[in-house]
């Protein structure tokens, strides 16, 4: 415990701040899910208390009964849903060509390379013939 019922729990080199009064943890799982995370559970077990006593009461049978006390509302078929004066969901915009990287970007040539490879081959052969003569 650090202070004011706030505990520091370390797991694989990372420290988590567990607030037992606010029922929150630095990993944010406890406040999101309503069930104590492993860091909070280690504090609760260290106090020799039950982990389930710190779970949110939304998980209790009492709350479940309250939720469905009036039963479940009926859902009408899709054609009977109210129409909003908005555009329907449109297909993605049409685009020319194939997706992915364009193929017409050739490798950048070095300083001593000519702009076209076939031209280079021809010139070397001519040069060779000239040297032999
Ligand atoms: Zn945690």
From TrEMBL:
<dbReference type="InterPro" id="IPR007527">
    <property type="entry name" value="Znf_SWIM"/>
</dbReference>
<dbReference type="Pfam" id="PF04434">
    <property type="entry name" value="SWIM"/>
</dbReference>
<keyword id="KW-0479">Metal-binding</keyword>
<dbReference type="InterPro" id="IPR006564">
    <property type="entry name" value="Znf_PMZ"/>
</dbReference>
<feature type="domain" description="SWIM-type">
    <location>
        <begin position="16"/>
        <end position="48"/>
    </location>
</feature>
<keyword id="KW-0862">Zinc</keyword>
<keyword id="KW-0863">Zinc-finger</keyword>
<protein>
    <submittedName>
        <fullName>Uncharacterized protein LOC104783531</fullName>
    </submittedName>
</protein>
<feature type="region of interest" description="Disordered">
    <location>
        <begin position="88"/>
        <end position="133"/>
    </location>
</feature>
């Amino acid at each position: 415990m650090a202070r004011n019922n706030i505990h520091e729990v370390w797991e694989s080199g990372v420290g988590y701040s567990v607030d037992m009064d606010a029922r929150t943890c630095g990993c944010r799982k406890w406040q999101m899910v309503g069930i104590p995370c492993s860091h909070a559970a280690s504090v609760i077990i260290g106090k020799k208390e039950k982990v389930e006593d710190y779970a949110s009461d939304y998980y209790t049978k009492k709350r479940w009964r309250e939720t469905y006390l009036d039963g479940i509302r009926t859902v009408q078929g899709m054609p009977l849903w109210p129409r909003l004066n908005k555009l329907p969901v449109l297909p993605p915009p049409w685009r020319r060509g194939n997706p992915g990287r364009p193929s017409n970007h050739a490798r950048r040539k070095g300083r001593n390379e000519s702009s076209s490879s076939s031209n280079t081959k021809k010139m070397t052969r001519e040069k060779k013939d000239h040297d032999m003569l």
